[in-house]
Each structure stands twice: as structure tokens, then as C-alpha cells.
Amino acid sequence: QAQLVESGGGLVRPGGSLRLACAASGIIDDSYIMAWYRQVPGKQRELLSIIWPDDSIYYKDSVKGRFTISRDNTENMVYLQLKSLKPEDTATYYCNAGLLTTPRRPGQYWGQGTQVTVSS
Question: Would residue 38 be called left, alpha or beta, if left means φ above 0 and alpha means ψ between -120 and 50 degrees?
């Protein structure tokens, strides 16, 4: 079995920061490609960032310089640091894991999501 559990979401003011965490367990280990997505109701889920086992990283252009992905293989954790948050960053954020993940194809495992709301 594989499990991804996100945490760290919440309500934050514009310009604020949050750190999202994703705890991976089961068969998901440091050989997996990890990613963060987000989704707004009524819209498609969008890719934000990918981190490969060799620590190569991809970012969606709109979050470059504001979001930072990282992984801690000893703890089997993946993080997404969110900075300079804007109201349009409001969404449910999802952790994703797979062995064949690309920017065009998500991995097969998803977490349940954590809500981020940016509002004054």
C-alpha cells in the first residue's frame, strides 16, 4: 500500500507564508518522483512543482521564486514552502508520487489534499 498525507494548510493573509508537508509511507520511498499540485473547484488540477530522486526540480512558471519544493528522504517527507501568497493561490494542495511522473503526467498516488486560503 501507499499513502500520502498532507498537512500545513490554513488561512493566511496576502503576502504571508505557509509550509506544506507531505508524509509518504508504504511502498513510496526515495526512488519515487514527488510533486505538488493544486486545484480550485471547477478547474483542472494544476502542477506546481516536481522533485526527482536526484533532487532535480521543476516549477510552474507562475510560482517560480515564491514556492520551494524540498524532500527529506530520511523522514520520507516532501515539503512545499509557499511565500508571498496571493488570493489567487487559494486552492486545495495535493501531494503526488510516482515512478514515471513528468510535467505532463502525474504519478499514480495522491494525498487527500490540504486547503490553503489566502484572504485578508
Answer: beta
**Is the confidence at residue 1, as pLDDT, over 90?**
no
C-alpha torsion sign, points 72, 12, 36, 50: negative
Distance CA 22, CA 11 (A): 18
Dump pLDDT digits (tens) for 6-57: 999 999 999 999 999 999 999 999 999 999 999 999 999 999 999 999 999 9
Q: CB of 40 within 8 A of CB of 56?
A: no
**Amino acid occupying residue 33:** I
DSSP-derived 3-state class of residue 77: strand
Confidence class of residue 101 from pLDDT cuts 50, 70 and 90? very high
Dihedral angle of Cα 69, 72, 77, 79, to the nearest 10 degrees: -20
d(C-alpha 52, C-alpha 118), whole Å: 29
Residue 1 three-state SS? coil
Label residue 31 left, alpha or beta by phi (over 0 means left) and psi (-120 to 50 means alpha): alpha
